[in-house]
Each structure stands twice: as structure tokens, then as C-alpha cells.
Amino acid sequence: MDIIITGLLLSGxxxxxxxxxxxxxxxARIMNLANGEMLVVGGFAAFILFTGGGVSxxxxxxxxxxxxxxxNWLIYRIMLRPLVNRAKSRGALEQDAILTTFxxxxxxxxxxxxxxxxxxxxxxxxxxxxxxxxxxFGLNRVVAFVCAVALCAALYLWLNHSRAGMAIRxxxxxPESARLVGIDVPKLSARAFALGGAVTAVGGVxxxxxxxxxxxIGVLFTMKALIIVIMGGVGDVRGTIIAxxxxxxxxxxxxxxxxxxxxxxxAYAMFILILLFRPQGLFGRRPT
Amino acid sequence: MTPNYGKELSAGAVLLIIAALLPFxxxxxxxxxxxxxxxxxxxxxxxxxxxxxxxxISLATAAFFGVGTYVTxxxxxxxxxxxxxxxxxxxxxxxxxVVGLATLRLSGVYFVIFTLGLAEMIRQCxxxxxxxxxxxxxxxxxxxxxxxxxxxxxxxxALVYLIGWLIQHSRLGFALRIIGDDEQVAAHSxxxxxxxKVALFIVSxxxxxxxxxxxxxxxxxxxxxxxxxxxxxxxxVIMALLGGTGRLWGPLVGVIPxxxxxxxxxxxxxxxxxxxxxxxxxIIVYLLPKGFVGLLQKIRAKTGGFA
Lengths: 288, 307
Known about the structure:
Largest interface: A-B, 44 and 39 residues
Radius of gyration of chain B: 19 Å
Shape of chain B: globular
Largest sheet of chain A: 2 strands, antiparallel
Number of helices of chain B: 15
Structural class of chain B: mainly alpha
Oligomer: heterodimer
CATH class of chain B: Mainly Alpha
Number of strands of chain A: 2
Distance between the termini of chain B: 20 Å
Strand content of chain A: under 5%
Order of helices and strands of chain B: HHHHHHEHHHHEHHHHH
Helix content of chain A: over 70%
Shape of chain A: globular
Number of domains of chain A: 1
Largest sheet of chain B: 2 strands, antiparallel
Radius of gyration of chain A: 18 Å
Number of strands of chain B: 2
Distance between the termini of chain A: 41 Å
CATH architecture of chain B: Orthogonal Bundle
CATH superfamily of chain B: ABC transporter involved in vitamin B12 uptake, BtuC
Number of helices of chain A: 11
CATH topology of chain B: ABC transporter involved in vitamin B12 uptake, BtuC
């Protein structure tokens, strides 16, 4: 039981990160391999503000979100827009975007190592035990879970029940038709990318409260987010949440019963199963 | 085209002999650079064999390389060295087949994502397995010298060029070029697209594994962090793209300048290697999207002659 709950608590944050990536890939059509680095940047910000100024990570969220939004918007406008314009097809864009963001991820890792060194960093925030169903859990994990769930819910409601959210979903479904009904696709793509980056960075702040990070760990989170997005189906919020649950719980099971060093291998095993049996995602329809 | 075959092959043979003479000219620093160049040439060329025509970016070189390294590491005390190289090719090929069959039937993105984490996943598994056995790394003690390693790599390079040349002039190469141009068209004209892609990916993976197996004695002591260094996949992609994947000799043109550049970077800015590597990668993607080969073709087109 305690393993299930630990996995559940972890999956909340995973769902949030995957939603960030889903916005970038599903709407802006950018397969962002530097997604995990943005997460680590968020975690770094929380770490520095907490150890340097005693600022609670929960407050840092409100600072990191707009900064990351702006930063990602700049990345999209400066680096990715030219690729979108020069791409002849979606496949060509995908390839260019993968190469560029892959390079970007190394630049970001390089900057972080240069600036802060390659050491592990963590800080002790709300590391008090809390009892749920008779077992002890870290309060920080519970708070992180609550934050992540609240943000996911807010994002979900906004996407499904607001005008802007509807426009974003329209672009996700079909950029060509979205243009016909008067949606400014380039502008919205930039915003969706920026929003996705902001969500990821916020996820990084949250995750830094209970996990130890280092400058080059980003790629692991990129992998996990990608696996969740694919498992859940691109652009499918419900699928993303369930996939995050499966990954979080599955990973915790493997970490507990076999070895904590095998979490990525566990995620990979699930990835292979999905690719073999349901490549369109858990709830996706088979392409005709 | 037929009359050129002999010329192409003999030119290649002459270059190969010249390359093989290096250990007689120098045995210190230059030879060690030579080993690096030969290693990256084989890796980048075999990478480009698959990724060039198909446009599928494989980020798994380190995974195959590491697997090859471990074949030597685990087998050196049990089997004669010369058995290990084909064994590494076999293991690398099987791994590539599994990855290819799982992902290449689907869109390219799945493939890229899968290869991105493959090295890390295998590293985790190897580390776990070694911990179960109670040790951290393996010693590879042989009496192979740097020159031996160099010659093996040059020989392997020759083999890769030959394979690449044969593929280019075969039905498979033709099919792959069509797949690269338009996969739909390829499928409609009766090409088994997944099978062609998987076949080439197997070649590419097997070669990278053999390189790992050849290099292993040079490390003497191997552990997962060395064998599955993700930086390797990245460097190989950079070099191949810098040279250009449109021609068989393209990656070589990227490998040579980049190896020297890399020597300078890692000697002068040891703390900024990752950053500089990332930046040079971005410069290549934006300014030289088709590499030196593409640049050369552009210049030729402008001058209108065969400059």
C-alpha cells in the first residue's frame, strides 16, 4: 500500500511535466529534447532562492513561471520559428527541431555546469513525516503532489473551458483548419511552447523539493515525459494523467523490489510494451 | 557510371594504404589522434549509412559502442580475442534489430526518443548486474598496442566504406533514398520500408559495437560510465552532420577537423566542453544544414564548373 501511495505521489509531478511537453509537442509541434533541462533550471532556481534567501519553493513557483514563460517564448521566436518557416513538411520540422533542441539541451547543461558545477544539489524543505493510512510519508512529497494536481487541474479546466484553451486545442488538432477560422497559429504556437516550458520549469521547482538533482540529470526527465506523452497519446490530457500514474507506480515498484538504479529501465520496458501493442497511445484511435 | 567503379575503388585503396602507414611515421601523440580519428570515422560513417538516406536521427551510438566494449570486457578471459569482434557485431546487430523492429515501423519520433535513452537504460542494467556480482568494473588486459588498435580500426573503416559503397549501388540503397525522399511514395511503389530501415540500422549498430570491442583494450579498465558515455552519441552526430551525410566520404571530412578542434577545446576549456559542444552543434544545424558536402555542392553550383 505504501508503495502505491509513494508512486501515486510521484506521478502527480510526472503528469505535470508531461503536460508541459504535451503542449510543446502537441500544439507547437516541437519535439523538445531540452525539456528536462528546463526542469532542472526550475529546480536550480528553487535551490538557490531557498538556500540563499530562505525563499519557500512554493513562492518561487510564482517567480519561475513567468520567467520560464518568457525564456521559452524567446527560444521559440529566435531559434525555432526559423525552423518552422523553412520546414517543408512536418517530418522535416520534426527532424530539425529534434536536432536543435538536442543541441540546446547540451548548451543548457554546459551553462549550468559552468555556472554551478556538476555537483548534486538538494535542500531540506518540509521534510517532516506525515501519516497516511498508517504509513509515514514525507510532507514535501504530499505538498508537491497537491501542487502538481492543482496545476494540472487548472490547466485542464483552462484548456477545456476557455476561449484561449479552445484555440490551443484547435491548433493541436489541425493547424491548417485553425487558420481558416481566424486563429493566429504562429502566435499561438509560440505561446503554447512558452506555456509548456513554464509548466515544465514549475514542475522542476516542485520536484526539487523532494528529489536530488544535478546539472546533467535533465535527459532522464525528458525521457520520462516523452514516454508518458506517447503512452497517453499526444494531446490527450486524460491519457497523460493515467500514463503518469502507471509510470510513477511502476517505477516505484521496481525501485522498491529490484533496485532504485533501474527506474529508467522500468520506464523503457513500459515504453516498449506500448510501442508494440498500442503505438497510438492508451486511448488513441488507430490511424486509418 | 560503370567505368568509374574501378577508379573509385582504387582511389579508396590508395588512401587506405596511406592511412595504414601512420604508425610507422609516429607512435606518440599523432598516433593517439589517429586512433581517435579512425574511431570517429567508422562511427560517423556507419551512423550516416543509416541516418543519411533515411533522415532518421539515431542517438544510440553510445549504446552500441558500450555493448561492444562490454563484449570484450566480459569475454576477454574466456574466448580468444578474434572471436570477440564478430560476437560484438552479432550482439550489436541483434540489439539494433530489436530497437528497429519495435520503433521503425512507427514514425521517426518514436525512434529518436527510444535511441535517446537507450545508452542510459543499458548502462543502468549493466550497473545493476555488476552490483549483483559484487564488482564495479572489468579489467581488459591484452598485449595489443595502440598501433594494433589503429590498424584494426582502419581495416574496419575500409570494410564500412566497402559496405556503404555496395549498399549505394544496390537495390537496398536505392530503396532507402526513396524512403528518405518520401516514405509514402516508397511504400506505394512496393518497397518494404520498415524492413529496409531495420536492415540498415542493424549494419550501423553492428559496426558501432565492433568499434567498442576494438577500443576496449585501450581503456584497460572499463566501467559503465565510461562505456556508455552519452557524449559519444552526440559527438558522432555532430561530426557526421558537419561533414555531410549526402556522400559516403562526407563524415570523414567532418571527423578530421572536429577531432582536432575537440583536442583544443578539451585542453583549453575543460570546464566548458559540454557548452562548447552544444554551441558548435547549433552552429552546424543553422549554418551548415547539409555539412561540408552541401557547402561544396553549393560552391560548385555557383561557379558552374567542377571546382
